[in-house]
Every structure is written in C-alpha cells, then in structure tokens.
Amino acid sequence: MNQTIETILSHRSVRKFEDRPLTNEQIKTIVKSAQAASTSSFIQAYSIIGVKDKDKKKRLAELAGNQPYVEDNGHFFVFCADFRRHALIGEMEATDVTESIESTEKFMVAVIDASLAAQNASVAAESMDLGICYIGGIRTNIQEVAELLGMPANTIPLFGLAVGYPAQDTAVKPRLPLEHIYHEEVYQQDEQAYKKQLEDYNKEISAYYHERTKGKRSDTWTSQMAGMLKEPKRKHMKEFVERKGFAKR
Ligand SMILES: Cc1cc2nc3c(=O)[nH]c(=O)nc-3n(C[C@H](O)[C@H](O)[C@H](O)COP(=O)(O)O)c2cc1C
Predict the structure, then answer these.
(1) With a 6 A CB cut-off, is 221 part of the ligand 1 pocket?
(2) For the segment 189-223, what is each residue's pLDDT rounded down to a tens digit?
(3) Is there an atom of ligand 1 within 6 Å of 13 CB?
(4) Superfamily covering domain 3-171
(5) Which ranges of the chain does DSSP label H, i.e. alpha helix?
(6) pLDDT value at position 218?
(7) For 122-152, how does the pLDDT look when each residue is reduced to its tens digit (9 = 90+)?
(8) In whole angstroms, what is the distance from residue 48 CA to residue 39 CA?
(9) pTM score above 0.70
(10) Residue 160: exposed, middle, or buried by beta-carbon count in 10 A (0-12, 13-18, 19+)?
(11) Sheet with 155-164: strands ordered across
C-alpha cells in the first residue's frame, strides 16, 4: 500500500485540536491542493474563505450549533459554491449568463466542484499529520453565516472544514460493506441481500460504538439513519439557495 492510500484509509474526523495555528505556508499548501482537484468544464465554481479571527470563529461555532471545534482549531475554512466570478465574466464578455448560472444543473456543478476541492484539501491536510472535521452545521443558520462572511449574490457557504493538530486519537469508523456500495454493470436490486448486508453492518457499527464509548452507546447504523431521516432538516435551504441565485430553474 502506498502512502497516499494509507493516508486516505486512516481518515477519521478529529474534534479536538491543539491550540496551535497553522502557518500561512500550511494554509497555502492546503488551498493549492484544493485547487488542483478536477473541476467540471474547468469552471472552478467555488471559493474558500479562511477564518482566523477568534471572535468570528466563536460566532461561527455558535451558529453551527455550538460545536466547540469550529472555534478551537488550527484554521477554519469555509467552502462555498460560487458563480459570482462567472456573473462578472458575463459583464466582461458582454454575454448574458444569468439563465445558465441560475440553473439547477449549475448549482450541482458548483456543489460538486467545491466538494472535490474540499476533499483534496482534507487529504492534503491529513498527509501533513493534521486532523480535519467537515462542518455541515454552518448551514443551520446559513443566512447569518453568509452575512458574517460578507458573501454576495451567487455565492453560498456549503460547509466548513476545521483543520489542526489532533489532540485526540480516534478510531477509524467502519464503512458499509464494499459490495453494498460498489455495483458492477447494473444497480444491484436484491433487497434481501441488501438488508442482510445492512444487518451485518449494524453489528459492526454497534460494536464500534460500544468499544469507543466504553459501553455507553451501541446504536446501529440503520437506527441512526432512521432517526436522522424521520423528518427533514434545515427547511430554509430551498428558499435561501434560490434567493442567492442558485437552482432557480
Ligand atoms: C459535508 C459534511 C458535513 C459534516 N458536518 C459535521 C458537523 O457539522 N459536525 C461534526 O462533528 N461532524 C461533521 N461531519 C463529519 C461526519 O460526521 C463524519 O465524517 C462521519 O461521521 C464519518 O466519520 P469519520 O469522518 O470519522 O470517518 C461532516 C461530514 C461531512 C462530509
């Protein structure tokens, strides 16, 4: 196994960091790695906002549902869908791009691009012996987050990425069985096999939580998912996304 694969397979989210900021050099390396990711039609429809200011991080931590590691980390990045530069390109090139950048397809393109960039950033950070944790919690109060970060039309904060020197050692979380995720040639629709795989995975996850929490927790993956999905969350999203000029048609 080469070192890149080893880094990728050792991933686990880190939620406790040393009080030690990343250097500007480290930040630059992480952002350059993010930018090296593939990008749909070379469109580069994302931006990354780095947050160092203590008060701003404190406020972001509150807005993200009081997650302390949003405030206490080595650096906090916010990955954003961004068509603002393309709106400006429309002006520069005297071309009406509004209908295109407001389409659902382009919304997906921006989210995909930002996510690929973020995962490159994450792997780069982890390869530098740093830990990371994605923060979708910033969408809980997305309007306030967008205001705090001074974000204009055609931009949306998608998720945060806390990076820093790990101050905890967490076990790698087991993933679904490979055959459950990977289908060959056609989508596998054997429901019985599918459910059996889920039951087997439940046992593995339950044992993982039991071990990690010294017996305090032993929930299964399917119960976790059912609990999470029993009602929609962040119902303000559609209205916010459209108001920012995304997925309007
Ligand atoms: C887009 C995204 C948003 C996430 N948001 C949060 C978050 O707000 N808070 C948190 O503690 N973890 C968050 N996570 C981390 C996941 O909970 C974590 O990746 C998952 O449980 C698997 O664990 P692992 O990363 O340790 O393998 C997020 C992950 C992703 C990909």
Answers:
(1) no
(2) 899 999 999 999 999 999 999 998 999 988 999 99
(3) yes
(4) NADH Oxidase (3.40.109.10)
(5) 3-9, 24-35, 54-63, 68-71, 84-92, 98-101, 104-127, 142-148, 178-181, 191-212, 221-229, 237-243
(6) 87
(7) 999 999 999 999 999 999 999 999 999 999 9
(8) 15
(9) yes
(10) buried
(11) 46-51, 75-82, 155-164, 131-135
Ligand 1 touching residue 131 (CB < 6 A): no
Which residues make up the CATH 3.40.109.10 domain(s) of the chain?
Answer: 3-171
Assigned token pair, 140: 């809980």
Q: Cα 15 to the chain's mean position, in Å? A: 14
Q: Which atom of ligand 1 is nearest to the CA of 65?
A: 8
Atom of ligand 1 nearest to the CA of 170: 26
Write the DSSP symbol of residue 147. H
Length, in residues, of the chain: 249
Q: What number is the average pLDDT over the span 100-107?
A: 98
Q: What share of the chain is helix, strand, coil (3-state, %, to 5)?
A: 50, 10, 35
Distance 77 CA to ligand 1 centre (A): 15
